[in-house]
Amino acid sequence: MDVCGDRRGQESGAVVFQQAITPKDRAAVITFNTFPNLAVRLTSDRQALGRGLAGLVAEGQTALYDSVMFGLYHLAGIKGQRAILVLSDGKDEASRFTFDATLDYARRAGITIYTIGLGLSELGARQKLEKLAEETGGASFFINDVGALEKIYSQIQRELRSQYLIAYQSSNASEDKNFRSVELRSERKDVVVKTISGYYP
């Protein structure tokens, strides 16, 4: 959660996020400005999440890519379904990691990323949020009204609870370690199919 932007958006987003957590979920909260900060470790305790989200202060520059990397590292090795939700305006002013390095690691991590752009205006920042989500099998959303967050969180929850695991054996006998693209199609016209853009062998 980006704490460099609009304070009202931060507080509203925090409240709706807390309410969206179910007893079966575990969530962590990572806030970020110039540096990422683990505000709440993985927990199913909604009160603990609420305490960690309380009193957010808008200050400093934005290290978005460093914070996404921090989140990916934090979830590494965790069993079960994993997803990262990024709530930010998409700008990055202070990261040590580049966007390309962050995207490459996200592809390797196997963790779905959802991005929500709040009050986003810069096309370049918007495109990068879209790319992070698209390449990892997630989705991106862009809103000006925080009232839309509840609907978005519900949609994300539905997606995460309606996923299937599909495995296949590649006919590519090459031993190179280059990125391999994957495309998944459905013959049904009434469904939307999303998956990762590819993998590293």
Helix proportion of residues, in percent?
Answer: 25-40%
Percent of residues in β-strands: 15-25%
CATH architecture: 3-Layer(aba) Sandwich
Alpha-carbon distance between the termini?
Answer: 32 Å
Indicate the overall shape. globular
Number of strands: 7
Give a nutshell description of this structure.
The chain has 201 residues and is of the alpha/beta class. The chain is built from six helices and seven strands; from the N terminus they run αββααβαβαβαββ.
Provide keyphrases for this structure.
3-stranded parallel β-sheet; globular; 201 residues; 6 helices; two-stranded antiparallel sheet; alpha/beta; Rossmann fold
Describe the protein.
There is one protein chain. By secondary structure, the protein is an alpha/beta fold. It has a single domain, classed as von Willebrand factor, type A domain (Rossmann fold), CATH 3.40.50. It is built from 6 helices and 7 strands; from the N terminus they run αββααβαβαβαββ. It has a 3-stranded parallel sheet with strand order 3-4-5, sandwiched between helices. A two-stranded antiparallel ribbon has the order 1-2. Helix 3 runs parallel beside helix 4 and helix 4 (99-109) runs parallel beside helix 5. It starts with 6 loop residues before the first helix and ends with a strand.
Reconstruct the topology from this structure.
Layout: H1 7-20, E1 27-32, E2 36-43, H2 46-53, H3 64-75, E3 83-88, H4 99-109, E4 112-118, H5 123-135, E5 140-143, H6 149-160, E6 180-181, E7 198-199
Parallel strand pairs: 3-4, 4-5
Antiparallel strand pairs: 1-2, 6-7
Helix pairs in contact: 1-2, 1-6, 3-4, 4-5
